[in-house]
Specification:
59% of the residues lie in helices and 17% in strands. By secondary structure, it is of the alpha+beta class. A 4-stranded antiparallel sheet has the order 2-3-5-6, with no helix packed on it. Strands 1-7-4 form a 3-stranded antiparallel sheet, with helices on one face. A hairpin with a 6-residue loop joins strand 5 (289-301) and strand 6 (308-320). Helix 3 packs antiparallel against helix 6, helix 3 (119-186) runs antiparallel to helix 8 (400-434) and helix 5 (251-261) runs antiparallel to helix 7. It is elongated, with a radius of gyration of 39 Å.
């Protein structure tokens, strides 16, 4: 089965300094390079990896409770005793300190134990194992989500670039139309109303261009958030890419793939196992515990000025079993049972959501194939319509409003075609993510569709350049 798988901004008051340029001698950055940078530097993924390591360490903690336990202890004490005075009656409250009443004692204790039967701790270890499994799936979800976010951020830049190019061309074309309208008005060929119409269209085109510049500026920031780096330029999407329906071509097959591979669904299923093991832990709380132990004690004191050395050892088995805990154990069992039900409902909700998302994305990507073709044809049709409208305007059968509308329709069609191309690419990656198929190979496959010729960069225009960006608030004067 073939499946495509996966500058510094200095704002100035009243001036938008966003420029698009072809990268010079510097090597443009491609999608796969950005993805690798993100996998190495993204803070959220790094936190997920640390979280996974913490859960693994928690499993080792639980395993350690079932292994031999050895402890050593020591004490150093000083005691003072009082006794009744020998011979004769004592007055009330009268005591006499014994000359040998001060005693110093040094004691050492060594004890070892080994669990023989402890169902609660074994259930806790099993729960820790299930938590590791769930956290591993959570990490896989985070990695897939990061790859998708990188692709979205990357192609949003290219989308914004293509739309900005269309808006700049539109502004330039309508500006020329405005200049022609002024010249015609000055020689009395048209009324002032047509100049105002052209001016209004120019103002709208300029506003759309400014908005596109802002979108372009913002889109570059997303990559820095994911990778912690700025890129001078990035490769662009080739003009000819394989716009084909997703493979396999049956929607049910994609649903089946998601049921088998989706880490989000698998994580929800692992959550059921964690909750079930928690119920086992609660039930084990009412079972007995048995362990073997051995201890050795030694002490030394200086009572009566003579060292007194004592030692002793023990070896045996001890058992304990809770008889009554105030109803806490039964309440904990009920609580764990309800938590298990919650995890089962969560799994069903995730299953339904995955099925719905896969079906919707499959339909959307399939429709995008036809949409890209239709948008391309719309450019040809609007170009022909614009040429015919201009010819009609020259001979007086069309007015300037018709020409301006035709201009606007053409550049809208160009922008819509760019939108459709990027919608297709991102829709395909989103479908793969929902099906659990998005990985490094997916990104590398899409990366093969990129070209370094005409790479997109974000540069500040040099002073005195011919960049058409205008100061906000600057407006050509309309003749009166």
């Amino acid at each position: 089965m073939h499946r495509p798988t996966l500058t510094r901004l200095v704002p100035r008051p009243l001036v938008l300094l966003v420029g698009l340029a072809v990268a010079g001698s510097a090597q443009a950055t491609d999608l796969w390079t950005v993805a690798r940078d993100a996998l190495d530097n993204d803070a959220s993924l790094a936190a997920a990896r640390s979280g996974f390591s913490a859960v693994e360490a928690g499993r080792d903690v639980q395993r350690g409770t079932l292994l031999p336990q050895v402890s050593v202890g020591g004490s150093l004490t000083h005691s003072r005793t009082y006794q009744s005075q020998a011979g004769g009656a004592l007055q009330p409250g009268q005591l006499s300190r014994d000359e040998e009443g001060d005693v110093n004692t040094l004691g050492l204790n060594l004890e070892a134990s080994q669990s023989l039967y402890d169902p609660a701790r074994r259930a806790q270890l099993d729960q820790a194992e299930r938590q590791v499994d769930r956290e591993a799936l959570s990490l896989a979800v985070a990695e897939q989500q990061l790859l998708l976010e990188v692709a979205e951020a990357y192609f949003e830049i290219l989308r914004a670039h293509d739309i900005l190019s269309a808006r700049r061309s539109q502004e330039t074309a309508i500006e020329r139309q405005l200049e022609q309208a002024r010249e015609r008005f000055e020689v009395g060929l048209i009324a002032i109303t047509e100049v105002h119409e052209a001016q209004a269209s120019f103002d709208l085109a300029r506003a759309q261009r400014i908005a596109a510049e802002s979108a372009m500026q913002i889109s570059f920031e997303a990559l820095e958030r994911l990778t912690g780096q700025r890129y001078e330029s990035i490769d662009v999407l080739a003009e000819e890419i394989p716009i084909v329906p997703p493979q396999p071509v049956d929607r049910g097959d994609w649903v089946a793939l998601a049921m088998d591979n989706s880490p989000m669904l698998q994580m929800a299923e692992a959550g059921i196992e964690v909750a079930r093991s928690e119920l086992d832990v609660s039930r084990a709380g009412q079972l007995p515990r048995v362990e073997a132990f051995a201890s050795y004690d030694v002490s030394d004191n200086d009572r009566s000025g003579v060292s007194g050395y004592n030692s002793g050892s023990q070896l045996g088995v001890r058992a304990s079993m809770p008889l009554y805990t105030g109803g806490g154990t039964q309440a904990q069992i009920r609580q764990s049972g309800y938590a298990l039900e919650v995890s089962q409902y969560d799994f069903e909700a995730q299953r339904r959501d995955t099925v719905q998302q896969v079906r919707s994305l499959f339909t959307r990507v399939s429709n995008d194939v036809e949409t890209v073709e239709a948008r391309a044809q719309a450019i040809v049709s609007n170009q022909s319509a614009l040429e015919a409208t201009r010819s009609g305007y020259e001979v007086g059968t069309r007015n300037i409003v018709d020409v301006l509308n035709a201009e606007r329709n053409l550049f809208n069609a160009i922008a819509d075609h760019a939108e459709a191309r990027y919608d297709y690419v991102l829709g395909l990656l989103r479908l793969q993510q929902q099906a659990g198929l998005l990985d490094a190979a997916s990104i590398q496959a899409v990366n093969a569709w990129l070209r370094s010729e005409g790479a997109v960069s974000l540069e500040l225009p040099r002073a005195g350049s011919d960049d058409p960006v205008m100061n906000i608030g600057e407006r050509p004067q309309t003749p009166t």
